[in-house]
Amino acid sequence: MARKAFYSFHYDLDNWRVSQVRNMGVVDGNRPVTDNDWEAVKKGGDAAIQKWIDGQLYGKSVVIVLIGAKTAGRKWIKYEIKKAWGEGKGVLGVYIHNLKDQKENTTAKGKNPFDSIKVNGLPMSNFVNVYDPSPWFSSTYNYIKNNMADWIESAIEIRRQH
Fold first, then answer.
1. CA 149, CA 138: separation in Å to the nearest integer?
2. pLDDT at residue 34 above 80?
3. Is the pLDDT reported for residue 29 higher than 90?
4. Per-residue pLDDT, 31
5. What percent of the chain has pLDDT over 90?
6. C-alpha distances in Å from residue 50, one per residue of 44, 55, 67, 94
7. Nearest Cα residue to 60 out of 161, 159, 162
């Protein structure tokens, strides 16, 4: 079954790294938003952002949180995770700090965003899988590309169980 994914990430810091994951072609993802589109959505305030996120989540089977240095704790990432979980979608995390940006730099590893979100009194990190690929760029890229489909199926199965 073809899975459709919503990618959750810190746009300003990780858009370049995220584009590498999107372009792997492993799953159908939400349409990348341009800088201008995102600025227009943000100008509409919280209601417009929430409406945009809800629309993007519609019809998706999984949310993939691409975790960079400052992903954890961000208001809208937390919203996306909670909304997806509440709708019964699979949820997983993938650290992307070892993918290079447009200047060929990697970044610091961020905190697990699922540590601070609770479901039935437990941190989501107790049952949501988070993957941390190799620190070598080519290995990181290939590891994500070669395993993403299996990670998605696992996330969907975990959600069925919880």
1. 18
2. no
3. no
4. 62
5. 80
6. 10, 9, 20, 23
7. 159
In the numeric block, which tokens belong to residue 13? 């810091």
pLDDT of 35 above 70: no
Domain ranges of the chain: 4-161
Could you tell me the CA-to-CA distances from 57 to 33, 53, 97, 117, 126 in Å, in that order?
Answer: 14, 6, 24, 19, 24
pLDDT in tens, 100-148: 999 999 999 999 999 999 999 999 999 999 999 977 667 899 999 999 9
| Burial 113-146, CB ≥16 within 10 A → b, else e | bbeebebeeeebbeebebbbbeeeeeebbebbbe
Fold that domain 4-161 belongs to in CATH: Rossmann fold (3.40.50)
Angle at 7 between CA 3 and CA 13, to 5 degrees: 160
DSSP-assigned letters across all residues of 53-103: HHHHHTT-SEEEEEE-TT-TT-HHHHHHHHHHHHTT-EEEEEE-TTS--TT
Q: For strand 118-119 and strand 122-123, is the pairing parallel, antiparallel, or unpaired?
A: antiparallel
